[in-house]
């Protein structure tokens, strides 16, 4: 009896033609590194001949590769760079679309434009966050380290300041020790708290020339200060960022949120899983998210380990810790259940 031969997976082939041969080496990468990464990530085959590039593979994966290559080509046409980070970003965005992400198509993703650079999203969640920063007066960015929450918030602030839509940027963090003691650090108060604010300085220097950062800080257009310095103030026509908000108390975050004045925008960023407050102290960020849920005019952008845009190992580390925490929660629940069961049995035996 004849047996039907197993059907082969459906394949599709697409050929792209590029009209500027000078840009092709930049698209392909050194030793075709960019093409190799796209092949490896999407499981497709790429073949180049002259100014033509052929994509072959499963239809869905071929379509994703085409979207990635076209997005990278558009960057090159605009005079922007294409390196490992940009390739990884385009791949993440294309994969998000393939998984049914309801946001804008890859080619229409929003950007934050400062005079020094155009900052494009590297994940679908970042794209939604950028849209939210442009639309909402108050935005919470929630998720693990390395997802771009603070970096994109600072970029939006710089863009609004340069466009004249706000008069100043205020960047703040709670000065909470993460295992170290603030009082033992050398120097005056500024020298003691500057290490806590260093990530904000670093983000600013990516958006503005160093001399502009120094000049704007001196003039008061940019203020970087510990959260305690916000008490008693009303912030008008400002762009205020509260970073590491998981380390605020409920009273502190309420104090910050109520500083909002006319023409002010606020961004609050933090990771509720990385609280450095003393044991038993409730995080103000966690409480605020519950209290303010559903309030019109407030946006909440959620990030997870899939949005980590640092070294690929960072995402794996975040995921591993999340799994370990989940196992601890399950273990504690099982132990509590056993204790309750033992107590019930002991009570029944009396």
Oligomeric status of the shown chains?
single chain
What is the number of strand segments? 11
Q: Please identify the structural class as seen in this structure.
A: alpha/beta
Overall geometry: flat
Q: N-to-C terminal Cα separation, in Å?
A: 73 Å
- The secondary-structure element order is EHHEEHHEEHEHEHHEEHEHEH
Please describe what this structure looks like:
The chain is of the alpha/beta class. It is built from 11 helices and 11 strands. It has a 6-stranded parallel sheet. Strands 1-3-2 form a 3-stranded antiparallel sheet. Strands 4-5 form a two-stranded antiparallel sheet. The radius of gyration is 25 Å and the shape is flat.
Top keywords for this entry?
alpha/beta; six-stranded parallel sheet; three-stranded antiparallel sheet; 11 helices
Brief summary:
The protein has 350 residues and is of the alpha/beta class. It has 11 helices and 11 strands.
Strands, helices and their partners?
Elements: E1 12-17, H1 24-28, H2 33-42, E2 45-49, E3 52-57, H3 59-77, H4 84-98, E4 112-113, E5 118-119, H5 124-135, E6 138-142, H6 149-162, E7 168-173, H7 189-207, H8 210-219, E8 222-226, E9 238-242, H9 250-257, E10 265-270, H10 284-291, E11 298-302, H11 312-349
Parallel strand pairs: 6-10, 6-11, 7-8, 7-9, 9-10
Antiparallel strand pairs: 1-3, 2-3, 4-5
Helix pairs in contact: 2-4, 3-4, 5-6, 6-7, 9-10
């Amino acid at each position: 009896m004849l047996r039907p031969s197993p059907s082969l997976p459906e394949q599709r082939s697409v050929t792209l033609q590029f009209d500027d041969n000078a840009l092709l080496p930049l698209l392909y990468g050194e030793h075709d590194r960019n093409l190799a990464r796209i092949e490896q990530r999407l499981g497709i085959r790429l073949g180049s001949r002259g100014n033509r590039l052929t994509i072959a593979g499963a239809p869905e994966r071929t379509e994703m590769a085409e979207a990635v290559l076209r997005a990278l080509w558009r960057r090159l046409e605009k005079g922007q760079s294409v390196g490992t980070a940009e390739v990884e970003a385009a791949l993440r965005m294309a994969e998000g679309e393939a998984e049914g992400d309801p946001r804008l198509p890859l080619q229409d993703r929003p950007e934050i434009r400062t005079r020094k650079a155009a900052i494009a999203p590297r994940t679908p969640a970042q794209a939604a966050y950028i849209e939210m920063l442009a639309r909402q007066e108050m935005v919470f960015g929630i998720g693990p380290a390395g997802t771009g929450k603070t970096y994109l918030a600072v970029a939006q602030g710089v863009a609004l300041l340069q466009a004249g839509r706000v008069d100043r940027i205020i960047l703040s963090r709670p000065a909470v020790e993460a295992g170290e003691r603030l009082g033992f650090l050398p120097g005056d108060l500024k020298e003691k708290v500057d290490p806590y604010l260093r990530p904000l300085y670093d983000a600013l220097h990516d958006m503005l020339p160093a001399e502009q950062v120094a000049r704007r800080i001196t003039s008061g257009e940019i203020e970087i200060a510990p959260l305690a310095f916000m008490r008693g103030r009303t912030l008008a026509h400002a762009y205020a960022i509260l970073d590491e908000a998981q380390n605020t108390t409920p009273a502190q975050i309420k104090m910050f949120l109520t500083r909002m004045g006319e023409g002010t925008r606020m961004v609050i960023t933090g990771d509720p899983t990385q609280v450095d407050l003393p044991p038993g102290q409730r995080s103000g960020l966690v409480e605020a998210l519950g209290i303010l849920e559903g309030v019109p005019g407030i946006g909440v952008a959620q990030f997870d380990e899939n949005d980590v845009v640092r070294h690929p190992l960072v995402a794996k580390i975040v995921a591993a810790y999340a799994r370990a925490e989940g196992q601890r929660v399950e273990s504690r629940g099982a132990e509590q259940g056993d204790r309750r069961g033992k107590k019930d049995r002991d009570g029944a035996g009396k």
